[in-house]
Amino acid sequence: MMAVLVLITALIFAVVVTPLVRNLAIRIGFVAVPKSDRAHTKTTPLMGGVALYIAFMVAIVSLALIVQLASTPETTDPTLSLGELVIVLVCGTLLAGVGLVDDWYAFPSSIKLGLQFVPVIILLLLTDIGIDMPLPDLANRGLSVCWFLYVINAFNYTDNMDGVAGMIATIAGMFFTVITIINGQIMVAALSAAVAGTSAGFLRFNLFENERKIFMGDVGSLFLGFLLAVIGVKLTFPADSPWVTWPVPVIVLGVPIFDTALVFVSRWRRGQSFLAGGTDHLSHRFKRIGFDRFGTPFAVGLLGSALGCSAIIIMNSSLEDSFAMQGLVAFCALYLLYRMEFSVPYEFITGKVRETETLAEPLASEMDQS
Q: Tens digit of pLDDT for each residue in 175-187?
């Protein structure tokens, strides 16, 4: 019940606050100008992440007040205390601040990545939040840093087309909510519901608007990516072996994780920088298959839903069944990688014509004239 209340609160505030923030962004000139390595073609307000942040904070602070005023077994969660929640929110705020400044000044990629280390390290030092596998503590710490930085940036990279990042966050947040409710994690469920509700409310203005559109920008994508990474490592399961359930958060967040791996492999093959922008993401390739502006984010959402269902199956599996399901998901991921990268032409991968072909066309026409 608490998770539902938080979801509705976040959804309502996102719908109410987003147009107000959009008007502010227009007044102060905080907008995204079209570029050659971006998919959008119109100047668009770029403070949607601020609206996401406000709506999320209102929902979570309301939850914290309820828990504080009525502390009962139903409103407490031993896996996430109020103290840890406060630290999560502070670190998330720092990341949102990094994203806000980056949206305005455009940090170099190396500086942007370096600044992300600060809140991640603070979180790992001040809380017990992190990967907890049967490995040496140093290995778990290292894996935790890698997990946070990968998920944060993977989600940031999915913010490349209207509705895609918002749809991914909504679907992942909903599945995390279901999983945590099943496992009795009340506070983590509320955190997940706030992500889902906030993201769903934001879609109203990012996907279903033409004249009043707004982008979430890095302030939103870094913030939501961080929250999803936190939720992923806070999941607890009744299974005896962590080797059974470790893939659950990875699979729920499989779309941004796969998208980042796809782009890395693709650009490595083409000798291009991984840190630069581009139109070679999974969503761009879906669009080139034939999905329209609504079809692409919904296709991504359906893929995320299929992965979420697979994660729930794994959560309730034996070790043998878990390994079998992990193998099936891995096979599907490799097949999709092959179909989207290795069996298609350059034009499909990038949406562009090879420079050598572009230069060859005038030469060919001159030879024909002679």
A: 999 999 998 898 8
